[in-house]
Design brief:
The protein is mainly β and about 550 residues long.
């Protein structure tokens, strides 16, 4: 009689334990990456009232089974549904990470200051010290660091991932090594035909990340398909002059261009308004016809004068409209002027490169010295010969093959850009970059983004895998600890993509609690509890009847 009561008591206790587990599951229905548990019952001891006996051939009797009376129930195991993933919750936060398992259950490795723990809850943030931490506990996320000599991930013992520190808040600058010129150059463009030429600028960087702007001038030679390009000067980022061929001790031909002696700098066959050239008599007049005052070319003064006393001088700028720059070259004895049959020709030494195009279809054929018959696609801006030290600049190779000679309505579209002509990126050069963002890819690689266009690896989140993940011990705060039955953590971890698993940034794993299952189990547990209660009340009634026998 008493045995039934004690069996029922054990049933009540065991069902209460199951209800406790169900209650904990439902309480954590919205806990990030929570794993539900379930209770497995097992019977307890049995009281043997009669042992089993075997068959007796002599008497012809069969065997008899043992007679046993059970003594109740107990909790056999609490199973953790750790290998079942919860649904994905989109958060949009860069440091929220969901683990997507392929064939093995993966865990983040975190450290509480004294030991490594393991979690599926990927809600992280960067603390004041720059460490990647759990938002709920502040435990540091563990992973692999970057090898400073190679820039690659070094997969050794995991350590705290300090993703924001002085060394990675900036990205090193890069000197410009390549540039290109592309677009259309139109021979009828007024800028191309002018003495100043079509001015184009190229902004580039030195090895320290300082920017400079080189000014180039593209000019027509007067011959179809032939142009020139020359370097005018190089400016600092604040607009002050860094290099001026007119004042520098470094010769222009050492920086950019090939020197050509007695080259034609300009040809002018049309006099300005207010002057008249009589081609029949090879005479010049002030006015609109031959009735004006006659003037004569004076090579000694590089000007025109009339025969009056005192004589009136008319400059080349007045008569032919040449630029101030050309006037300065003539007066500075850097150019010579001659007037023949009404045409002004200015010659002198020049340092530039010739750009040649096919006169058939306008395609680019080469760039190089004017006298060269072996022009190529590129020329070099020798910046290594300038600066405070030989390593301040790298030489810049400029590719002109993107140019085309064509009629574009008198408008040239030529542009100069840094970077390779193939991809526009190689050799472009970069300033010192400041960090503007951090991202985490599917392999757990943490990458920093910088405002100079660089992307650098800052570390990698490692994961832990166990032979028996269900054997891990829950320690609260969404964390687990290894046990003798789970398998040990080797201290290094594995890359999540090793078995095809991945990490998804901007998402969290939700609880895997199934409310329909929990409510069903709750009903079953309630009925079991009620049934065990009835055993106690029924046994009590029997005892009461037994006591009443003495009346």
């Amino acid at each position: 009689m008493m045995r039934s009561m004690y069996s029922a008591v054990s049933g009540l206790k065991t069902h209460q334990t199951k209800m406790d587990v169900i209650g904990n599951n439902i309480a954590n229905v919205n806990t990030v990456a929570f794993k539900s548990s379930s209770v497995v019952f097992q019977d307890v001891l049995y009281q043997m009232t009669s042992n089993a006996s075997g068959a007796n051939a002599a008497t012809g009797t069969g065997g008899v089974n043992a007679k046993q009376i059970g003594l109740g129930v107990t909790t056999g195991a609490t199973n953790l549904s750790i290998t079942t993933s919860g649904a994905a919750e989109t958060t949009g936060r860069a440091f929220d990470i969901r683990l997507s398992d392929q064939s093995t259950t993966n865990f983040f490795v975190v450290n509480n200051g004294s030991e490594n723990l393991f979690t599926r809850a990927g809600s992280f943030y960067v603390d004041g010290a720059g460490n990647l931490c759990m938002t709920s506990t502040g435990y540091t996320v563990m992973g692999w660091q970057v090898d400073p000599t190679t820039g690659n991930i070094k997969k050794d013992t995991v350590s705290a991932l300090r993703v924001m520190q002085t060394s990675n808040l900036t990205s090193p600058p890069e000197a410009t090594t390549q540039a290109n010129v592309s677009g259309i150059i139109d021979k009828n463009d007024k800028d191309v035909l002018s003495d100043k030429g079509l001015v184009k600028t190229l902004t580039f960087f030195d090895n320290l990340g300082y920017s400079y702007t080189a000014r180039f001038a593209m000019k027509s030679t007067g011959t179809d398909g032939k142009y020139t390009v020359e370097l005018e000067k190089i400016l600092n980022s604040d607009g002050t002059t860094f290099y001026d061929p007119e004042t520098s001790n470094v010769d222009l031909s050492d920086i950019f261009g090939a020197k050509t002696t007695n080259a034609t700098l300009g040809t002018y066959s049309q006099v300005q308004s207010g002057y008249y050239y009589d081609s029949a008599n090879d005479k010049f007049y002030v006015g609109s016809d031959a009735n004006g005052t006659e003037i004569s070319w004076n090579p000694a003064t590089n000007s025109f004068t009339d025969g009056q006393t005192p004589a009136t001088t008319h400059s080349l700028k007045q008569v032919y409209g040449i630029s101030n720059a050309m006037v300065a070259k003539i007066t500075g004895n850097k150019a010579n002027a001659t007037v023949t049959n009404g045409t002004l020709t200015i010659t002198g030494d020049v340092t530039d490169y010739a750009i040649d195009f096919s006169t058939k279809d306008g395609t680019f054929t080469g760039v190089g010295a004017r006298t060269s018959n072996n022009k190529t696609n590129t020329v070099t801006l020798n910046m290594s010969k300038l600066g405070n030290n030989p390593t301040q600049f790298d030489d810049i190779t400029i590719d002109f093959s993107g140019l085309k000679d064509a009629n574009n309505g008198g408008k040239s579209t030529a542009v100069m850009s840094t970077g390779s002509i193939d991809d526009g990126v190689t050799g472009k050069g970069k300033k010192l970059g400041a960090m503007i963002g951090i991202s985490i890819d599917n392999n757990g690689l943490i990458k920093g983004t910088y405002d100079n266009g660089n992307t650098e690896i800052l570390g990698q989140i490692a994961v832990a895998q166990f032979a028996n993940a269900s054997g891990l011990e829950k320690v609260g705060e969404n964390c687990y600890r290894t046990t003798l039955n789970s398998g040990e953590f080797d201290g290094i971890g594995v890359e999540i993509s090793a078995d095809g698993s991945s990490m998804t940034s901007g998402e969290l794993e939700m609880s895997n609690v199934d409310l329909s299952t929990e409510f069903t189990q709750m009903i079953i547990t309630q009925r079991g509890f009620q049934a065990n209660s009835r055993i106690i009340t029924t046994s009590d009634t029997l005892l009461e009847e037994l006591v009443n026998l003495k009346r």
